[in-house]
Amino acid sequence: MKKFALVLIALILSTAARAQYEAQVPDEMMNLEHAQKADSLGKKILSEKGSYPTAIELFKRSATIHKHLSGVKSHDYYTSMALLAKCYLRNNQIQDAINVLCSLSDTYKGEPLLTKDYAIIMDNLSLYYAMADQPDKALEASKEVMRISDGVDISKNDKMLIFVHAAENYSMMKDYQEAIRIQLHALNLAHQLYGMGSETYIGELKYLQQYYEGAGETAKAKKTAVSIESLEKPGGGVRPLDELNTTDDCAYHRGDAYWCAEYYLTHALTEERAFEAGQYATKWCMATDELTIEIDERHTQCIGDCPTELAAFLSGCLLLGQSNEVSQLTREMERQAMDWTVRHYYQNREFLVKPSPELDQLVECLKSNTLEAKLLELIPNVVKEQSK
User: Fold this and answer.
1) How far apart are alpha carbons 318 and 302 in whole angstroms?
2) CA-CA distance, 202 to 232, in Å (whole number)?
């Protein structure tokens, strides 16, 4: 009888906690239109860093409606509750944020097929516990998400963040060896996603150095510090060309290629390793099967015979292709890449042995604010043939 009473009390407390994060919604507003309106307004407040108490009430309302319409296991309900937790966090109500995510995790826990939603809930919960200075609970949440992460279809970026948070939580509990092991997985993903020269990769490398120091592995910590110093130098993220021999190589080094393309387009040719960065981006474009770039008369009449600016155009195509996750660029994207090429040429013309007459003409258009119209003339949109 005593055990039953304790279970009943726990159930009452759980029900009361859930009610705290729900809203009183009139029957006439219990529809999808009002839920979507509340969600939209709440997201706008979040993006503009406005009144978080107002956003809290909006997401309470939308979550209540979604629960009524679709149930607690619907993605709409999950999204509203996750955003409600984020608002509480922004409003410095961290325990409320934790309570909302705990409620969500209870809903998803024990499902036959654990979902991406559950993985993200547990990862956010681990982060919130860490922020609330509850490292033991943060680590337990990380262990749970690590347990299921391999069986859940989540993006590489989400998986990288899961590893990052888990490594931090292990380090907070002084388990530096496990922190090092997991941080190495995070770094591998950061490399693939953003390249070794990126702020993300270098930032995570600095955490690895701290974990080595915590574990007393002084030699590895010093070696990591040397790597950080090298990568932080101008052009430090440029990789050797001979690592791009296969399509699998290109898939692994797509982040390095992106970094090199961006570095090439944003630095003068006289900058350290800028020319090598352009070569790397060019080779990636030639060797990959992820992106098809057609160079024909349309493009040569813009670039002429100028290899440095062909590399600039390919770099622009690479950036746009990866950013938009497309295998072939639209004509609009090609014009954007050519616009960047003209600007790159304009900034570097004095360093070239042989200028391009074609690009000189486009530079004049740039100066007269007619470049957009000229590029539309040279690289027109594809006209679909009408069916007869």
Assistant:
1) 18
2) 8
Report which of 17, 16, 37 is spatially closest to residue 25, judged by C-alpha positions.
Answer: 37
CA distance 290 to 179: 34
Q: DSSP secondary-structure letter at 352?
A: -
Lowest-pLDDT range of 12-26, 77-91, 216-230, 272-286? 12-26
Q: How far apart are CA 133 and CA 371, in angstroms?
A: 55
Q: Give residue-wise pLDDT tens across range 152-180.
A: 888 999 999 999 999 999 999 999 999 99
Q: What is the pLDDT of residue 388?
A: 44
Which structure tokens are listed for 294?
A: 């057609």
Q: What is the 3-state secondary structure (H, E, C) of 22-90?
A: CCCCCHHHCCHHHHHHHHHHHHHHHHHCCCHHHHHHHHHHHHHHHHHHHCCCCHHHHHHHHHHHHHHHH
Rounded to whole angstroms, the Cα distance separating 218 from 214 reads: 9
In sequence order, the β-bridge partners of residue 292 are 328
Answer for the pair 204, 166: CB distance below 8 angstroms, yes or no. Answer: no
pLDDT one-digit tens code per residue, 293-324? 989 999 999 999 999 999 999 999 999 999 99
